[in-house]
Design a protein that fits this description.
heterodimer, A: Aspartate Aminotransferase, domain 2, Aspartate Aminotransferase, domain 1, 3 domains, 7-stranded mixed β-sheet, globular, B: 440 residues, alpha/beta, Aspartate Aminotransferase, domain 2, 2 domains, two-stranded parallel ribbon, 13 helices, 13 strands
């Protein structure tokens, strides 16, 4: 792939900014603090830059390009109007340290968004500071730490996790200073209550749950689970990655959650940006309100303040108040949808997933055959001799479809985790079923089509082992590759 | 609902295929008492036109954008070339996610690779990741990483850290049970090297620092023994300042906002993170690496993933997953458009405007530059009257400056900190000088 370092250079100034009057040496900065050799950044004419990045964009598959059923990531359509309002100069041009009197509109927006998120979660309060789901997890677990520190129970340092948990859960627990212990799933893919009961003791700070779980199954005994954890003195963390399955229908606060994180870039439609930025606000129960990050937005009538005086707060987890411009998009989305729209999101997301599950289970192995929520997990095992899930995934690319999440959750061998979202219609789902059925037939009749896939992508199958073993992580200026 | 393509006929057909009678039946696995407790928000759906009007009202309520911005502390009011926004608006970039499938993510992966290269060129470090949330969280992650490499010893942190960086570092250090000590500053506003602890695990310095002062860091690394040197920089300043790799920094972090990102009330931002190759196994964050496809054609894929949470779970180097990829793309397009020479000129223009203003102010009675002139585009100036009242007076005249409480918290009384970028005009600065002259 051509990089900017391979492009032809222009001559002369870039013409973007006024020229300085005099060179740096005369400015007053001591000479020995000044840089002696320039960084190798090419000087490119604007049309060259425009064509380079347009060419790169065409080698990407986004939600606007086609179906993107990446399980657990909720790759729904990102409404265009949200992009426009987030670019309003009155939002984009705000410095976070401006006097609060000059940012009242922003604080009003954040306060209203927080109120809506509280309502969606059915919980006591919200912090908008975390900027990603994993950052919300970390912040929530910091709250756990502070809670037990304040109560004089600092030895509660174990977090229990189901074996189907997202990788961020154990990683967040470790960064927050907790040990991790696993609880088993039972034969229908739900938490094994005996395994939970056996693990609950006075060293347990709490449990991290994903509801519905990463198999797309609702924990039917959720009230029993949270009640037992609370009875044992622990707290309940709810990973909100799967909110799309119950938004507008049920609330984690009514299920016993102490912390629930939102991924605004999943259920609330803000774009994923090729990996970020996202936003991971947390909603908390009464128990944890005193420990929320500062500053907190305080409202009195129509005026808003940033409050810092919360002695039991964990402090700050982000340089400022979080990903404000992502919050603007999510707020616009909530305003448009209202209660009716939010409910329609969950209804259609769950209907679409069940429709796909039903139609695909005759062709592919479905290890947990139950009503699912917004996603479900197939296995590529046993489709045909020598065919792996990776082969199926790569072949889907040839049909113009982004592959599902693969090899996760870990409790299903050769997993294909499929999440259609509500922004696909039946016609789109039918095309996916047709592609999956054709791939299943190809797996038997023309397995090389799968082994060698993709055939129509901008590039053939990449050697990821080589990327790991012989890392080339910056442009090799001395040995250019074209 | 216009984001949902299914018609009621579709829904009927699909329910029949699934074999349930109604949508409600699909939720029968949620316990009845949970469903019964549900309460709606009480919000009716609104049209796109109404939403635009409401958001427009809120945006207008932010009077900050009518004022002249002299705020800094890591986030600055820079000009953003038009092309940056146009590239970012391509939905192939912004509606994609993490490049788990490299064959249809070469756009994102190539840009990540370019970004990593640009960060290494600017900092003169050997390896960089493809972004962290912001400068402050990047610094906190750098300290966690340093403690994984050097278990023994305290982490010594410059007192002259921007407060936004310091606060996040304090939270992460508390949770990780990391002991930190503060390094005081000397009369020049720089870290007092005499006051460094013995055998620290790491030393954390910011340059330019919270006073705007450029630290002198040559020889510091050599005096630390096994200890790691972590430096937080303003990346634009590296257009003219010695890159940290040249004085031996082990980890360099930065707030990348100056490279083509709107101030956006502080988010989304862009954390830059670079280190030496010997530390790559401990580095957090996603990395793009060059490889080849089945036909031997070069391409890019995620590299060194065994450090990451989706593989390593509780033994990962970080919990980070979603990062600031699109902001990194903005910075990449920005730097590709500005170029090395353009970056030098822009950095000079910033420094020049800030220095010219500082010289004019220092000539007024009672105004003084307590830490001299080794600063980039942001400086601290002592003022002859109550700085809080001065800040109010400035606001009334349409200028925004950092709350002087911030400097007072660092032990500098009666002073203001001003940031001057290429966007500040002669006319604005003339007016500013006039307002401050009135304070004499």
């Amino acid at each position: 792939m051509r990089t900017i370092f391979d492009c032809e250079c222009r001559e002369g100034v870039n013409g973007l900014f006024p020229d300085p009057h005099e060179p740096a040496k005369k400015i007053g900065i001591a000479d020995d603090l000044l840089r002696k050799s320039a960084p190798r950044i090419p000087e490119l004419a604007e049309p060259v830059v425009a064509r380079h990045y347009t060419a790169l964009s065409k080698m990407n598959h986004g939600v606007d390009d086609g179906f993107y059923p990446l399980g657990s990531c909720t790759m729904k359509y990102n409404p265009k109007v949200n992009e426009d309002v987030a670019r309003l100069p009155g939002f984009a041009g705000l410095h976070p340290d401006a006097d609060v009197s000059a940012i009242q509109g922003a604080l009003e927006l954040l306060s209203s968004l927080a109120e809506s998120l509280c309502g969606i979660a059915g919980m006591a309060d919200v912090s908008l500071q975390p900027v990603a789901g994993a950052h919300g997890e970390l912040t929530g677990l910091f709250l756990f730490r502070k809670y037990f520190e304040t109560r004089g129970e600092p030895n509660r340092r174990t977090i229990l996790l189901p074996d189907s948990a997202h990788g961020t859960n154990p990683a967040s627990a470790a960064v927050a200073g907790f040990d991790v212990a696993q609880i088993r799933s039972n034969d229908v893919g739900l938490i094994d209550l005996d395994s939970l009961e056996a693990a609950l003791d006075e060293t347990v700070a709490g449990v991290m749950l994903t509801v519905p779980n990463t198999l797309g199954l609702f924990e039917k005994e959720i009230l029993v689970v949270t009640e037992r954890v609370h009875a044992a003195g622990g707290l309940c963390y709810f990973d909100g990655a799967n909110l799309n399955s119950f938004v507008g229908i049920a609330r984690p606060g009514d299920m016993g959650a102490d912390v629930f994180h939102f991924n605004l870039h999943k259920s609330l439609s803000t774009p994923h940006g090729g990996g970020g930025p996202g936003s991971g606000p947390i909603a908390v129960s009464e128990r944890l309100v005193d420990h929320l990050p500062v500053p907190r937005i305080e409202r009195s009538g129509e005026s808003y303040e940033l409050g810092w005086d919360y002695p039991h707060s964990i402090g700050c987890v982000h340089g400022h108040i979080g990903n404000f411009l992502v919050a603007v998009r999510a707020y616009a989305y909530i305003l448009q949808l209202g209660d009716e729209g939010l409910r329609a999101v969950a209804e259609n997301a769950v209907l679409n997933a069940n429709y796909l599950q039903t139609r695909l289970k005759s062709t592919y192995d479905l290890p947990y055959d139950r009503l699912c929520k917004h996603e479900f997990v197939l296995s590529g095992k046993g489709l045909a001799e020598g065919i792996t899930t990776l082969d199926i995934a790569k072949r889907l690319i040839d049909y113009g479809i982004h592959p599902p999440t693969i090899y996760f959750p870990l409790i299903v061998k050769e997993a294909l985790m499929i999440e259609p979202t509500e922004t696909e219609g039946k016609a789109s789902l039918d095309r996916f079923v047709e592609a999956m059925e054709r791939i299943a037939a190809e797996a038997k009749d023309q397995p090389e089509l799968l082994h060698d896939a993709p055939h129509n992508a901008p590039i053939r199958r990449l050697d990821q082992t080589r990327a790991a073993r012989h890392p080339i992580l910056t442009y090799p200026f001395d040995e250019p590759v074209v | 609902m216009r984001y949902i393509p299914n018609t009621s006929a579709d829904r009927r057909d699909m329910l029949a295929t699934v074999g349930v009678g109604s949508i409600e039946d699909l939720f029968s696995d949620i316990p009845r008492e949970i469903l019964d407790r549900f309460e709606p928000l009480g919000r009716r759906p609104r049209s796109e036109q109404e939403v635009v009007a409401e958001l427009g009202r809120l945006a207008k309520r932010n009077r900050a954008t009518d004022a002249v911005c002299l705020l800094g502390g890591g986030i600055y009011d820079h000009y953003i070339p038009s092309i940056v926004g146009h590239v970012l608006s391509r939905s192939e970039f912004y509606t994609a996610y993490t490049p788990y499938q490299p064959e249809i993510s070469q756009g994102t992966l190539t840009a990540m690779f370019e970004f990593q290269t640009l960060v290494c060129e600017l900092t003169k470090m050997q390896v960089a990741n493809s972004s962290m949330y912001d400068g402050a969280t990047a610094l906190a992650e750098a300290v966690l990483m340093a403690k994984r490499i050097r278990h023994d010893g305290v982490v010594a942190v410059s007192r002259a850290l921007h407060s936004s960086f310091r606060r996040v570092l304090d939270t992460y250090s508390w949770a990780a049970d990391i002991e930190t000590v503060e390094i005081p500053y000397d009369a020049s506003g720089r870290i007092d090297r005499e006051a460094l602890p013995q055998a620290p695990a790491a030393v954390v310095v910011q340059s330019p620092n919270a006073f705007g002062v450029i630290e002198r860091l040559d020889g510091l690394k050599e005096s630390l023994g096994e200890g790691l040197l972590i430096v937080a920089v303003n990346p634009l300043s590296l257009g003219i300042l010695v890159p940290p790799g040249e004085y031996g920094a082990d980890i360099v972090v930065a707030e990348g906002q100056p490279f083509g990102l709107p101030m956006g009330m502080g988010g989304p931002m862009l954390g830059l993170f670079a280190t030496k190759m010997e530390h790559i196994r401990q580095m957090p964050g996603r990395i793009s690496g060059q490889t080849v496809d089945a036909e031997g054609k070069p391409g890019y894929a995620m590299a060194a993933q065994t450090r990451e949470q989706h593989i390593r779970r509780e033994r990962a180097t970080s919990n980070i997953c979603t990062n600031s990829a699109l902001c990194a793309l903005a910075a990449t397009v920005y730097l590709a458009s500005v170029g090395a020479e353009g970056l030098r000129q822009l950095a000079e223009l910033n420094a020049q405007k800030a220095h010219a203003l500082s010289e004019r102010l220092a000539q007024l009675d009672g105004f003084r530059l307590p830490f001299g002139s080794d600063f980039f585009n942001e400086f601290t100036i002592e003022v002859p009257s109550d700085p809080q009242m001065l800040r109010t007076a400035l606001r009334e005249q349409g200028f925004l400056v950092t709350d002087p409480e911030e400097l007072r918290g660092l032990g500098v009384e009666n002073a203001l900190r001003l940031a001057v970028t290429e966007k500040r005009t002669e006319e604005e600065l003339d007016r500013l000088v006039d307002v401050l002259r009135g304070a004499q």
